[in-house]
Design goal:
Elements (H helix, E strand, L loop, with lengths): L9 H19 L25 H11 L6 E7 L1 H4 L15 E7 L14 H26 L1
Helix pairs in contact: 1-2, 2-4
Length: 145
């Protein structure tokens, strides 16, 4: 686990830089890394908050090392029942979590590929893929009724 200090100011900025560098180091060493592009969990179920640029910095850092990261966009529904926000008790049983995912292709995104995109744009594109998964899911649910 690489924790990120999201407070404003220079110390928070240094913490975010160190976290991105540590993520790159772990992935370059063969570890799988999971990055939550929103920077944390939302308090409103099904809300997808704006993406933070750190995921884009990690992707660019890996590409600079010649590593092609596999980015998987994941949307889940129901996790707030299993790991409630602001709760002292984690991992409640007996609740359902629905998960949808798709591989996100970095190449061919608009006029740029992942190598020359701004890190925030990479993060925003990944967020857009998750929003699309959520939209597709809602469309399917509305036709099932």
């Amino acid at each position: 686990t690489v924790l990120v200090d999201r407070r404003p100011g220079e110390e928070g900025k240094r913490s975010r830089t160190r976290a991105a560098e540590r993520g790159i180091e772990l992935a370059a060493g063969g570890e799988q890394i999971w990055i939550f592009f929103e920077g944390g969990r939302t308090r409103i179920p099904d809300e997808i908050r704006p993406a933070r640029g750190g995921i884009g910095r990690v992707i660019r850092g890996l590409q600079a090392l010649g590593i092609r990261p596999v980015v998987i966009a994941i949307h889940h529904r129901g996790l707030e029942q299993v790991i409630p926000l602001s709760s002292r008790r984690w991992l409640r049983s007996g609740h359902r979590i629905d998960v949808r995912w798709s591989e996100f292709c970095l190449e061919g995104q608009g006029a740029h590929d992942g190598n020359d995109q701004d890190p925030q744009r990479i993060a925003d594109d990944i967020r857009a893929a998750v929003v699309q998964l959520q939209s597709d899911w809602r469309s399917e649910r509305s036709t099932d009724a």
